[in-house]
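We close this part of the discussion by returning to an individual protein. Part of our work consisted of pairing the sequence of a single chain with a tokenised description of its backbone. The amino acid sequence and the backbone structure tokens for this protein are reproduced below.
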Amino acid sequence: MKRRLISLFMAVMVATCSMTGCGVKTSQKENTESGYGSGDVLSEKKVGVCIYQFADDFMTLFRDELKDRLVEKGISEDNIEILDSLNNHNTQVEQVKELINDGVDVLIVNPVNPSFAKEITDLAVGAGIPLVYVNREPDGDEEDRWVDNDYHVSYVGCDARQSGTYQGEIIEALGFDTVDLNGDGKLQYYMIEGDPENIDSQYRTEYSVRTLKDSAWKLECVGDEVGNWHQETARQLMAKFLEEDKDIEVVFCNNDAMALGALEAIEADGKVVGQDIFLVGVDALEEVIGCVLEGRITGTVFNDYISQSHSAADTAINYIKMEKVEHYVGCHYVKVTTKNAQEILDKIKK
């Protein structure tokens, strides 16, 4: 099955690519056969962008970098329209329709719910407008459809399984004896998930734990709650759970915003990360990297919004220019601990 081959190829890519390198799952025919683009001046082309919600800290970084890259490559800022889908799939679908009616030359969509990407794909394909999905990956069947029908549709982003694996590896590297604070031979962990219907959340939840199980660690889940990516929600969940005074040795958070919320509750309870509990997130927000350097958060995983957004902009422009475009452009996560936190901080501050 194509999806299995894709997963195998991604595993090879993870092992061989550099921090900002990108790889390819599968390619499509030259766009010169499609009739997209006309070779006109790029500044005259229109780009429509839908972001699942502006309130997401990571997507704020992403969309700002995306816009800068599009302008840098020759798109007029006046011809870039970026819309907030307010975390509502129906709203996003209506926005896509509006952008199509406005005559955009290419669409870039950060889907509210990747499981329903087919509806957006069909709208774009039906209108003859190339489409680039970013950050939240549609499922394998949907991606196979692009290949089988030679649709001008691509995905640019990271494999969320890798981010979950890296969370587990950050904890594993500490050593079981270090993490088993109560000495009972088991790791008690608390999981704070993003959106349980989101594939990134599902993979991060699954693979962070699977990594430790594969290393023969004995685990006990003492709690698994939904924080919906929100800092304040995570703070409330963590505070409430700490009141129950159960053993918690590791807290896994599906993103950094929730890790910051958990940290607030942990410190308010008088506990110290690295001594009384361990805490990991995903995204490598600047504030969280600072906390890693201070030892207040055990580690995070850099969700490289710079390479992702640049690759998304470049892919969209390649569609406009009728150049060869891949159906899948995969970028890679990076583990962030005290060993490399300053390097990552310097990278995102450039």
Summary: Residues 55 and 155 are 22 Å apart (CA to CA). Residues 1-39 have pLDDT under 50 and may be disordered.
